[in-house]
Design brief:
CATH topology of the largest domain: Ferric Hydroxamate Uptake Protein, Chain A, domain 1
Shape: globular
CATH class of the largest domain: Mainly Beta
Strand content: 35-45%
Helix content: under 10%
Number of helices: 5
Structural class: mainly beta
Number of domains: 3
Largest sheet: 9 strands, mixed
Distance between the termini: 50 Å
């Protein structure tokens, strides 16, 4: 790992670079219980199992020796990326950490690379993932990394990460992690911005088909701001249905999570279940249909549920059961979302025999 510390100069961002810590490194190999597929399932001690096969672009020819790069994107604690080579038949088996509920992975071989795949993980269950290598010439690479507070080492969520001249801005998740894919080959100026921190810019080199990891330490900066007065018109439907009253009291006593249309517009999720699953303790089971996901809670009314406990979903005050909201409503149609993880915080109007695993309430515009 190469650390760029104590950088000074007369560039526009020199002031922030004097204090910020930037670490740029090639991905390291981390053991994560990998094993070649030789016809037998490894003993993962009840943990989730990820079975990966790397194929050519047609999906018919196995690619042995390809490197599989994986990040446990929904684990309780941060982990370094895993890099393991596929064995005979282009196959690889990984035992997931006990607290992991989701993985983001792709395959690399020379200049060739696959698309990213997101695989939900459940304890004691196997998940099959096919990665198709794009054998045509690759002209881009990836940047992945973590953004943390340089003083406390706490993750910095919702930081904006981009490269100068690029059209894509990645937003760090609640653990401070980000992924920038499709970055053109060459030297780029990486920009990291977050209100209350000194802005940071740093040169990074992107190679063809290669993933480069970046660790950023932002330094808190006192910000002198002109007073701001913001006004917003509340949707009448939410006002009548009591959404804002429940939001006020729920946030006051940590009795639920509430998402407004502005929150959804800022994130622009493909599916609303993706945004709901950002809540601690909630994950998704999308099965083979990635367009419709069940919402699972790690805890039910009787305690921890190893395989997850499916939450009940309400739309506009009517229970739709436990089928998942994605096939019923799109993010652009939503005015507000209420998330209640357990009966203790659940308002009486959303109770019932199927509410023991928690309830998701969606209001349309």
């Amino acid at each position: 790992m190469v650390e760029g510390l104590g950088m000074t100069g007369s560039s526009t961002c020199a002031g922030s670079l004097r204090f910020a810590r930037v670490v740029v490194a090639a991905l390291g190999t981390v053991a994560a219980g990998a094993a070649d597929l030789l016809g037998q399932e490894p003993d993962c001690g009840g943990r989730g199992v990820l079975r990966v096969v790397v194929l050519d672009q047609s999906g018919s020819v196995p690619i042995p020796g390809a490197t599989v790069v994986l990040r446990w994107t929904d684990a309780e604690r941060a982990r370094r990326p895993v890099r393991e080579d596929a064995g005979p038949g282009g196959q690889l088996v990984l035992c997931a950490p006990r607290d992991a509920r989701q993985a983001t992975l792709w395959a690399e071989l020379g200049d060739a690379s696959s698309e990213e795949a997101v695989a939900p993980i459940a304890a004691g269950a196997s998940r099959d993932v096919r990665l198709l290598l794009r054998l045509a010439e690759v002209r881009t690479g990836r940047l992945i990394g973590d953004v943390r507070d340089a003083l406390t080492d706490d993750p910095v969520a919702v930081a904006a990460v981009s490269v100068l001249g690029g059209t894509v801005v990645a937003e760090t998740n609640r653990r401070g992690r980000f992924i920038l894919s499709g970055v053109p080959v060459g030297v780029h100026e990486l920009s990291v911005r977050h209100l209350g921190y000194a802005p940071l810019s740093h040169a990074v080199t992107v190679s063809r088909g290669i993933t480069t990891e970046v660790e950023v330490g932002l330094v808190p900066e006192p910000v002198e701001m002109v007073p701001i007065v913001a006004t917003a018109a509340r949707p009448r439907r939410l006002e009548i249905k009591g959404f804002y009253e429940r939001k006020y009291w729920g946030e006051l006593v940590s009795g639920g999570t509430f998402l407004t249309a502005a929150d959804i517009e800022r994130r622009r999720p493909i599916l609303i279940s993706h945004m709901i699953a950002d809540e601690m303790g909630i994950y998704l089971d999308c099965g083979l249909r990635q367009s419709s996901c069940k919402i699972l809670n790690r805890r039910g009314s009787s305690g921890f549920v190893p395989g997850g406990c499916e939450m009940s979903v309400w739309v506009d005050g009517v229970s739709i059961g436990k089928g998942g909201p994605d096939s019923v409503v799109r993010p652009v149609e939503i005015a507000g979302v209420e998330i209640y993880k357990g009966p203790a915080s659940l308002p009486a109007e959303f109770g019932g025999s199927d509410s023991g695993c928690g309830v998701v309430v969606i209001w349309t515009k």
